[in-house]
Design a protein that fits this description.
This protein is mostly helical and about 90 residues long. It is built from four helices and no strands. It has one domain.
Length: about 90
C-alpha cells in the first residue's frame, strides 16, 4: 500500500478488503495512520500464512527501487487496486 507521497507499506492479512478499509480510515496501524497509507498498489496471494509471512519479510528487506519495479510490473501507474478489485 502507499500514499500520495509514494511511501510504501507492506503487510500480511487474511482479509484484504477489510484491511484496506481499516487503513483508509486510519485505523490499520500506527504507521499507516501516521503516513495516511490508503492506496492498494500491489497484491500477492498465498495458500498458507507461513508462505505469506516469508514473502513479507523478503520484500521488507528489499531496497525501495526493487519494490517499485515489482509494483510497476503489474501496476505501472500505481493506480489504487482497491477501487477496482473485488475481494
Amino acid at each position: 500500500m502507499t500514499n500520495r507521497s509514494d511511501t510504501l507499506y507492506i503487510g500480511v492479512t487474511n482479509g484484504l478488503e477489510r484491511r484496506v478499509v481499516e487503513h483508509s480510515r486510519g485505523s490499520g496501524s500506527g504507521f499507516t495512520s501516521r503516513y495516511r497509507i490508503e492506496h492498494l498498489v500491489y497484491v500477492e496471494e498465498f495458500a498458507s500464512p507461513r508462505d505469506a509471512i516469508s514473502r513479507e519479510k523478503q520484500l521488507k528487506g528489499w531496497r525501495r527501487e526493487k519494490k517499485a519495479t515489482l509494483i510497476e510490473k503489474s501496476t505501472p501507474d500505481w493506480n489504487d487496486l482497491a477501487a477496482t478489485r473485488s475481494t
